């Protein structure tokens, strides 16, 4: 389990009030019993921790699994790195 996965699983467990061992890759936010407002706050927590912003299409909290959240963070981080790389390259010319 990588650091992002560990953090997401721990955040889901905390929001659901369950032990982290109860969170599986296919656990959905809804199945864990996480209220909508708590789920949204959790997304803000992810954005703050990883210094990123999710695009509207990145996460559907109605159907998102733990694995979906990890993937969304990893994709957002990859986009951020790509933009930074492009900015650095254009500044070097």
Explain this structure to me?
There is one protein chain. This protein is mainly alpha-helical and 93 residues long. It has a single domain, classed as ACP-like (Non-ribosomal Peptide Synthetase Peptidyl Carrier Protein, Chain A), CATH 1.10.1200. Helices cover 60% and strands 0% of the residues. It has 3 helices and no strands. It has helices spanning 3-16, 36-50, 66-92. α1 (3-16) runs antiparallel to α2 and α1 crosses α3 (66-92). The longest helix is centred in the last third of the chain and has 27 residues, at 66-92. The protein is elongated. The model has no long low-confidence stretch (mean pLDDT 90).
Brief synopsis:
With about 90 residues, the chain is mostly helical. The protein has helices at about 5-15, 35-50, 65-90.
């Amino acid at each position: 389990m990588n650091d992002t996965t560990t953090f997401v699983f721990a955040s889901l467990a905390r929001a659901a009030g369950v032990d982290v061992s109860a969170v599986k890759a296919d656990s959905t936010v809804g199945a864990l019993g996480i209220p909508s407002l708590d789920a949204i706050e959790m997304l803000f927590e992810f954005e703050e921790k990883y210094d990123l912003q999710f695009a509207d299409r990145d996460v559907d909290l109605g159907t998102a699994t733990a694995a979906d959240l990890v993937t969304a963070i990893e994709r957002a981080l990859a986009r951020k790195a790509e933009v930074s790389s492009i900015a650095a390259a254009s500044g070097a010319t």
